[in-house]
Amino acid sequence: MSGYYPPNQHIPPQYYNINPNAAQNPNIPHVPTMVAPDGSIAHGMPESPVYHGMPVPFVQYAEPQMQQPYLNQYEDVPGAMGSAPAGTTRMRRRTAPGDNVKHRRTRSGCFTCRQRRVKCDEGHPICERCRKASRECTYPEPQTRTKGRSGSKSGKSGTDGSSPEDQDEEDSKERLGPILDDEGEEIDNDYNLLSKGQGLREPSDTPSLTLDRSPSPLTETSSATIPVLRPPLSRKTSNQATRPTASSSKATSSLPPDVRFYLEYFQDHMSHHHYALKRDSGNFLKTDFLDMAIKHEPLRYAVVGYAAYYHTLSKPDGRISSFLQYYNESVSRLRASITKHKKQSLATFLTILQLASIEEVLGDWVNLMGHQKAAYEILTRLYTPQTITQTELLRKVLLWYIRFDLFVGFQSGGESVLGREWYVVMHDYYAQKAREEPNDLTFKYEERFAYSRLVAKDSSDLFARKAKGLLSDEAFMAQLPILDEQVKNLDKNIDSVLLDPSGYVTNFPGKPDPEGIVNPYEPNVIWDGPQWTSNYLLLDMWGIIFVYNIQVSMAMRKPFDPSMAQKAYRVAQVFEAVCAYPKGPPGAIIEAQASLAIATLFLPKDPKTVQWCRRTFAKIESAGYIYSNFLRNRMLEAWGIEHSDWWLPNDEACPPIIRSIKNFVTERTTAPKDQASEDLREMKGLFSTLTISDSPLSDTTSHTPIEGVLALGAVPANLDETIIYTGGSPDFDWSYDPKLSGAGQ
């Protein structure tokens, strides 16, 4: 991740720290290392079990060294989004001698300066501060508004029939970066959903934006990152926090047309399944999250980049420059924000998670791992297990992070870094709510998901600690039966209401593929309506069961449980059904692919099944979830097929845009810098010790015993010796050559 987070010898614990006198984060000394050595026990991942790493060194950027934890030099600032220890009231930053101090109150001047708590020179029609930063300048008496420079043209509606391509020339004049005040960022608690009433045009054509121009629109009319470090607990609900306000509506309407276009696309064509969030009954992504993206520049461009990625895939003439530029802009602004303001907020944390989601679908596991470590540092400094559960927004944020935490832990062969107490408090919260409101389906689902995460955490930690020699054989064998019982009962201990047969899809028009291995159109295969989540609840639990069986098979040197093959067929059937169901939400295939991918390891290897697997993986990649060359070639090799850069011969069923993306990703991949990088790139945690024998349809798969899997030493003691930061980050100096990718054709 070098190149966009400030470098440091002891990253990530000191990665964002600037105050050498501040107290150390008490969580850091106990953080387990992330990467197991070569030959370590194989761990799968229930969320995304077959993954890959592609180390990508990029151009380094000279930045000031950031040392030692700094967060204690700040104290709480009120905010509706976060939480803080009980009794916290409005606190102020501690200042050192000679520091410029913001004015605590302003009883005169424009509303903008009052809100930002800075002195206003009361210039008319626009004060100097608002003029410099291109902010809206409004005075209380008389109640009139005069827009600054960036707002002078921003009122132009996106519904005038012109596309972003048509407006490129005009918009280029508006894409100059704002002149920010030296005194820091403003606090803006007006969060409002991107409203359809603003007249954004229907998604049609990809905006014609290329990397040989300005990398992305820089217009910023309402810079509103939230400088909250351990935010005080809001007494408002998330719904109250997202009430429509005039100021946030103006902030949205003043955004560049292409940014507004992709935010609208995000709202209309993307769902929680693109984020593997299982269930989003409170519409977190389209309310709190989207509102923060509108207000916070780095997060906004990260969300726009993610939406642009999927929009690009939907266009036959899509170009990779259409989404890379927004990712680059997000990374650039995140670096600038961290360097300039030297503090993080919930918005910073969400930006890193969003960037990690982009890395995942592009197949860059190494950089995803780096994002996860950086996010861990921010999470544990902003919140505690007690404060993180106080609002629905924060609970969703933690669930999002937990997914990456388990992902990295399983795939690297080590423990997940987040302490078990975080998992416990989430399960306890939802278990209590499920008891208090027994008729609420959401709480029943969330309790089961939280429990499955806790079981996955225990499984990951048990095998990782044994592999590192931290558990004796006796202790390991004493704990294994307890874990075994929990895992085997995962899909059995589900509230009957969630599996109510009345919610089954019984009328599913369609004919099974004669080349398929399952019939997804059978009645009573998947649920619909409020019970749609049950499909993913079972897929999720089956994924954890598959991973556990791989771990046990390696540790105990015994073949897979014979019942796993039948369960793998069941996963394949549910996967095909949720993907083919016409009433399914967008992104259904993206979330469902995780359990399907690892289930294929338990399927037989007859020609028909192998061909079905190849076509299915091609379909998944065509939908936007790209696997690594190494993963594909190992799978092809296991099936007795020559290595190839696509799942099917002659690029069959490979869309041109996917070919462009894969070529681009391949070109930016270089040789790993060390053995740990090589292990991650080649997924040694899953493939180096796993062999699946050929077997007829009626047979189950078998596994070759592993020599010395649990006798390995500990991973490197120093964090900088691990892989997580040996690769670069695809920031705004990505070497992009249209000729290589075919995007310019």
TrEMBL record:
Q: What protein does this entry describe?
A: Zn(2)-C6 fungal-type domain-containing protein
Keyword Nucleus in the entry? The reply is yes
Region (Disordered) residue spans: 83-104, 137-253
Q: Which GO terms describe its biological process?
A: positive regulation of transcription by RNA polymerase II
Looking at the record, the residues that make up the Zn(2)-C6 fungal-type domain are 109-139
Q: One GO cellular component from the entry?
A: nucleus
- Per UniProt, the ranges with Acidic residues bias are 180-189
Query: What CDD domains does UniProt report for this protein, alphabetically?
Result: GAL4 (cd00067)
- The superkingdom of the source organism is Eukaryota
List, alphabetically, the InterPro entries matched: Fun_TF, Zn2-C6_fun-type_DNA-bd_sf, Zn2Cys6_DnaBD
Subcellular location, record wording:
Nucleus
- Per UniProt, the ranges with Polar residues bias are 205-225, 235-253
| Swiss-Prot/TrEMBL keywords | Nucleus
Q: Does the keyword Nucleus apply?
A: yes
Low complexity: compositionally biased ranges: 149-162
Annotated GO molecular function terms are: DNA-binding transcription factor activity, RNA polymerase II-specific; transcription cis-regulatory region binding; zinc ion binding
